[in-house]
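hey team, just a heads up i'm posting the complex here instead of the shared drive bc the drive is being weird again. everything in one block, sequence lines first with there labels, then the predicted structure for the whole assembly after. its two chains so it's a bit long, scroll down
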Amino acid sequence: MIEISRLRKRYRGRTAVDDVSFTARPGRVTGLLGPNGAGKSTILRILLGLDAATSGTASIAGRRYRDLEFPLRTVGAVLDGTGAAPDRRAVDHLRWIARSHRIPRARVQAVLELVGLADVARQRVGRYSLGMGRRLGIAAALLGEPEIVVLDEPVNGLDPAGIRWVRELLRGHAAAGGTVLISSHFMAEMAGTADDLVVVTGGRVVRQGPVADVTAGHPSLEAAFLALTGAGGAA
Amino acid sequence: MSALAAATRAELSKIRTWRRLWLVTGLVLGLQLLVGAQAMGLYAEAVAGITPDGRIEIFAGVREPAYPAMTEALVASSLQMSIFLPVLTAVLAGREVRGRQLGLCLLAVPRRGRLLTAKILAAAAYLLATALLIAAISSVFTHLAVRDWDPGLLVSAGALRGQAEFLAFAVLLGVTTYAIAVAVRRTLVAILAALALITVTMTQVLAGRPGLDALFPLSAGRNLLLNPAATELTAGPWHALLVLVGWALVTSLIAGVSLARRDAR
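-- predicted structure starts here --
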């Protein structure tokens, strides 16, 4: 379970996240939905220990991410801007991550096959397409066979087949009892993947709950989102 | 301890699989081969002219006892190449602490202290391996120059101590530069900082203040490695070793504070 409580983050005199609280539960896909710059990535970065919160707490299974001894065995994460070095081979990228967590080498091969990159694992990451890079990120996230998966904009740049693959992967993970937290600004994708939604704008949570509750009274998730975030005027 | 060992092995794995780093390391070693091969002729000529009372003329007009002079020549040929090591380590560290890579490192090893320790241990191992190769090249060429005069020079106590001191200097200077790069998170700034520290010694701007000069890393390297009878030094070897350890510790501490206090962006 992921618990965010009264989280606040100020950057250079600006409030990026303001009093955000929500819970992502096992067996469900929780979607963090908001326009660009809403604070979604910052929330995830604080959750994963990359940024420090100004106040509030973010915990995973009751502990801070940085307090987990081998965190990738509990949480698999892909954040924007934390990709592999382009001049390293994909297999070497996964191997150093596996070594950091005492994960057997065989698991590297298993995740490469799972994400469909086994045949190109010895290519340098810089030669990968955007979609292949996303798959590699997900492979790294799944290395430790984590119970919890956190993905920042996982379908950005993917083709329709790739989007469907990510959706099925996440739905399968939740169906097996895992906790999934994803951020996105793609309405259709979120509507098809998430069970629960946390709608964020301007660093604040404006609505949260099961998808049906969030969209109640609106013809679609997109309409609900535009109404909740006030982004309709820009369209 | 096991988590630190795993993190260090992961960092070593990254170093091992970074092809560009090994290319640059190969260039430095190639340069050492070139310079060593050129110097070997000069040393062989000087060794051939050793007088019956055991004096050698390496520099024109300067006759000095042959054994300490050749021991110092051995160490000096390694020392000249070690000036490139800070650049190598700054490049290594700079790549690791850029936004994307630092974020990934922290996802794998979120405890800053553990991550920094693992990175420094891995960088020190890389530096040690590179410095050993530099010392080996110096040894081969020196052996070729002195084998007809004193084939046991390389394994004499003085030579072995000199090589050990060189390894300590190379690793400590490299760790200092690595820590500076982590603290500032900029390769270029770290290289400039390392060059500035080296320049202070090379230009002898503090020649009139030996106490201050002795506190700079390259001066400490000279004080540690060179023969006080043949070279004007600004402090003794133990002082020099303390200065080098102090630089490595203080810069690592600053890097740790920087890593802990700043967001990984």
